[in-house]
Design a protein that fits this description.
With 104 residues, this protein is mainly β. 12% of the residues lie in helices and 51% in strands. It is built from one helix and six strands; from the N terminus they run αββββββ.
């Protein structure tokens, strides 16, 4: 019987971050790695910002594929574009990096 963590890791490698299924090859901080990029548009309704939308990019990559791990407020290069790292979390071996474009 396979435990949950083993099955999850197998699914990440075999499906979620498989370049033939969901992921694609991307250049991140000079490394060519498999990643899944998810564009997110959120509305920022902070003071004086009614109706302002923020373009964000959520990046999913295996933790072991990107060293050093990006940190909050750092600039990260993804496919030739620069982004500010807003948050980073490690979800059982998958880094989830939330970014905002550094320049338009």
């Amino acid at each position: 019987m396979i435990d949950y963590k083993s099955q999850f890791k197998s699914d990440v490698d075999a499906v979620f971050l498989d370049a033939d299924i969901f992921a694609d090859w991307h250049e991140i901080n000079g490394l060519r790695i498999k990643a899944l990029l998810d564009k997110v548009m959120t509305q920022n309704d902070g003071p004086g910002r009614v109706g302002v939308f923020i373009n964000q990019l959520r990046v999913y990559v295996r933790s072991e594929d990107i060293k050093p791990v990006p940190v909050e407020d750092e600039i990260i290069s993804i496919d030739g574009f620069e982004y500010y790292v807003r948050s980073v979390s490690d979800e059982d071996g998958v880094l989830v990096i939330l970014c905002e474009k550094a320049s338009q």
